[in-house]
Design a protein that fits this description.
By secondary structure, the chain is mainly alpha-helical. The protein is built from eleven helices and no strands.
Length: 263
């Protein structure tokens, strides 16, 4: 009995992740095709099609090289935001899988850790495919460009954990997620320097980019992908900001799960 309890305490988080991987087999074809299809469409439409309209490039590099890292970041961060809303609320309200896990020897912290482990692997898988396509399209210049993969995972958690903390605390969805999509996710996508430098955004809108995890993640990705020039303190600031949101959000998410599961 003691050995069994030790195993649960040590590996409980992985049991949760494994369970979510098994659930994902029901829609694995969608995950795989979207992981290949979305990057291909983005790169053809924006990186290649739109690049023809910007022949001079941006900041001294071809437009595809400039926009490619940001497209990778926006894809993974958007998935992170999506996974933090209905899947979290559904796990409590409709499928009640989190309550089922909570009835086992698993602790709320293990449930959250397993949930995040599963998503970290999924994010990294999708980002690796996107990175491979950037290489095929000739959109990377430096050998450090592969670091875009962990940067995208960190950026995704900078959005996912705070938002998942909120989703775990609500009992009914009456349009909150639609508002988040319209008032948070979409402005973040449009005003975070994804398609053009943030300096070109009107002054009264630049604050959206400063607060946006997408701008910080895209800037880091451009630094490691083609060596975008910026002060070292700013690069460190990008990393610190994303880490603060991810870690702080994880703490809040854990508290929200614990409160919901023990209520």
């Amino acid at each position: 009995m003691s050995m069994s309890n030790d195993r649960w305490r040590r590996w409980g988080w992985w049991y949760v992740a494994e369970t979510r991987f098994r659930e994902m087999t029901a829609y694995v074809s969608y995950v795989v095709t979207s992981s290949f299809g979305n990057p291909l469409i983005y790169l053809l439409a924006l990186g290649v099609g739109l690049a023809n309209l910007v022949p001079q490039g941006i900041e001294g590099v071809p437009y595809l090289i400039y926009v490619g890292p940001a497209l990778l970041m926006s894809t993974i961060l958007t998935i992170g935001a999506e996974e933090a809303m209905f899947p979290v609320l559904g796990g409590f309200k409709w499928q009640k899988v989190f309550f089922a896990m909570g009835a086992s020897p698993l602790s709320p912290g293990q449930i959250v850790a397993g949930f995040c482990t599963h998503l970290a692997i999924r994010f990294a898988f999708t980002a690796a495919i996107f990175y491979g396509m950037l290489v095929v399209f000739g959109a990377v210049q430096l050998g450090t460009a592969w670091l875009m993969i962990p940067v995208s995972v960190l950026g995704a958690f900078a959005i996912l954990t705070p938002l998942a903390s909120y989703s775990a605390r609500i009992y009914d969805e009456v349009g909150q997620f639609a508002l988040i999509q319209r008032l948070v996710i979409m402005p973040m996508f449009l005003f975070s320097g994804t398609f053009f430098p943030l300096s070109q955004v009107p002054d009264w809108l630049e604050w959206v980019g400063w607060l946006s995890p997408l701008w910080h993640a895209s800037s880091l990705a451009r630094v490691v992908s083609y060596g975008m020039v910026e002060p070292i303190w700013l690069t460190i600031g990008h990393l610190a900001y994303l880490a603060l949101l991810a870690v702080g959000g994880f703490v809040l998410m854990r508290r929200s799960f614990e409160k919901r599961l023990t209520a």
